[in-house]
């Protein structure tokens, strides 16, 4: 599976979002963190900003909804122009119905798991999804340190994806950098959200290229990729 790098605008300059989006045009997706100050203790942006970003960049938008009541709000992000919408299973009332609604509206449906949420109870939901997001930090803030004990969870998730023969992307978000991306790739991730590691660099576009090169080299040797 192809490695994808998704810079997170949570680490960008919010006063210059259109320029910051252009600075990473070589990226696969632009990761947009939506926080409501209820599901997570932080408030970021909402539908109007996503609409504006969608008009300002050709890079597709990967919206990660860290919000309560995603069943109610997620479809609006598809309408706003998001190409992929991620909801948290901990917040969704009816995750299968929500995933189907997101897909029906024309976007990729993705489900996120906080660090303490196990993957195993949701094995039967995987065919309903286009991507699964394993959080490698507690959601709510950028710039956090990578939680190493998430690596076995990434590995177990990749095994479940392989077991069912699914073309399901496996995304990791939180503390992804030059020092952690290879471990994530080796464990089975193929979509990498990077905030500080990209926007904290002198050249964000070069940072994206470097992270991609690292992840691709590791994936080429990873046992899960060879078996796929």
TrEMBL record:
Residues that coordinate or bind a divalent metal cation: 31, 33, 64, 173
Any one Gene Ontology molecular-function term assigned to this protein's record: D-ribulose-phosphate 3-epimerase activity
Cofactor: how bound: Binds 1 divalent metal cation per subunit.
Cross-referenced Pfam families: Ribul_P_3_epim
Pathway(s) annotated for this protein in UniProt: Carbohydrate degradation
EC number: 5.1.3.1
Its job: Catalyzes the reversible epimerization of D-ribulose 5-phosphate to D-xylulose 5-phosphate.
Family indicated by similarity: Belongs to the ribulose-phosphate 3-epimerase family.
Protein name (Swiss-Prot/TrEMBL): Ribulose-phosphate 3-epimerase
Source organism: Streptomyces olindensis
Encoding gene, per UniProt annotation: rpe
């Amino acid at each position: 599976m192809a490695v994808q790098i998704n810079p997170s605008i949570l680490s960008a300059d919010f006063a210059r979002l259109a320029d910051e989006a252009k600075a990473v045009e070589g990226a696969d997706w632009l990761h947009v963190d939506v926080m409501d100050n209820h599901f997570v203790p932080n408030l970021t942006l909402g539908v109007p900003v996503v609409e504006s970003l969608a008009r300002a960049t050709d890079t597709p938008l990967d919206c990660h909804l860290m919000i309560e009541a995603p069943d109610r709000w997620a479809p609006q992000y598809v309408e706003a122009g998001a190409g992929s919408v991620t909801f948290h299973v901990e917040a969704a009332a009816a995750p299968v119905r929500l995933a189907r609604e997101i897909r029906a509206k024309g976007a990729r449906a993705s489900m996120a798991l906080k660090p303490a949420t196990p993957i195993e109870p949701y094995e039967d939901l995987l065919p309903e999804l286009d991507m699964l997001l394993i959080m490698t930090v507690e959601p709510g803030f950028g710039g956090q340190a990578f939680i190493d004990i998430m690596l076995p969870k990434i590995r177990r998730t990749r095994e479940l994806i392989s077991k069912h023969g699914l073309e399901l992307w496996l995304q990791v978000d939180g503390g992804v950098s030059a020092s952690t991306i290879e471990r994530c790739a080796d464990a089975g991730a193929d979509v990498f959200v990077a905030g500080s590691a990209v926007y904290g660099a002198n050249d964000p576009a070069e940072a994206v290229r470097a992270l991609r090169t690292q992840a691709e080299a590791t994936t080429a040797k990873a046992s899960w990729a060879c078996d796929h």
